[in-house]
Amino acid sequence: MAEERFLVTGALGCIGAWVVRNLVRDGYPTAVLDVGGSMHRLKLIMTEAELAQVNFITGDITDLPTVERSLKDTGATRIIHLAALQVPFCRADPALGAKVNVVGTVHMFEAAKRAGIKQLVYASSIAVFGHSEEYGDGPLAHGMHLSPNTHYGVYKQANEGTAQIYWQDDGIASLGLRPYTVYGAARDQGMTSGPTKAMLAAAAGQPFHIGFGGTGVFQYTDDCAKTFVRAALAPVQGAEVYNVGGASLHMREIVAAIEAAVPEVLGKVTFDDKPLPFPEDVDDAAITAALGTLPKTPLAEGVRETVAIFKQALADNRIALV
Length: 322
Known about the structure:
The termini are far apart. The model has no long low-confidence stretch (mean pLDDT 95). Helix 1 (14-25) links the parallel strand 1 and strand 2. This protein is 43% helix and 16% strand. The longest helix is centred in the N-terminal third of the chain and has 22 residues, at 94-115. By secondary structure, the protein is of the alpha/beta class. It is globular.
């Protein structure tokens, strides 16, 4: 069987950085396509020797020829598409958000088609769903109606539709994954980055206030990345989209885990008990049936690992408090 070669978009982001780390450590030739910017997330979780194995390509997914050229030059056989502008940036500039998140995703499918790549994996989001009261009690079931309430969520819904049409018209298969609240080292921006910022502050012995609360699904960064890699290697037919499971936790449990990892900040990590406008739990039976049992790092372990990474990075001056 021919060697698998990966092209990852958005690798300078949080999930992207962890995906690249996993691919390199698993021995896959890996290229990344990103518009450019700071490599601080990659440097936070990868060694210089590991980074030297990655083929970095500076380019914009809103330019189709650039995407096509990247696939051709790297000989990629697998695509993990993660590049996107997050909720605050889409709110601030909806037109740019649509250009990157929607048009950019169309370009990834179109470039895959032209390159003869028959499947890809992309990031959708829990943001395609509406308020929790729209769905009744219990975990959000697979296949529930979409009702986004942000520009970002609308764009992600559009991408799921794009995936359906490329399967219908061109036979390009895909898996879309919908993460919820991802936490861990390298998660430093976006609407739900507060818990991770609190872990960084705790590692520095500083107080922090998280701007939301309530109950939601939390997923450790490394688990999320491993799920994307598993999905990218799976044989795919159709254009399925899956909710990604995790642990349904109240923010007080997150705070307790931070305090357990760093007892010095006991009572110094606070939060607004205002829940996010999404269901409190998701049923991940569908993705488990498709991909098998997926990694779910216990909260206490994930928080300890994150704090340890932050403490080392603070000591090495590779990260600073925002």
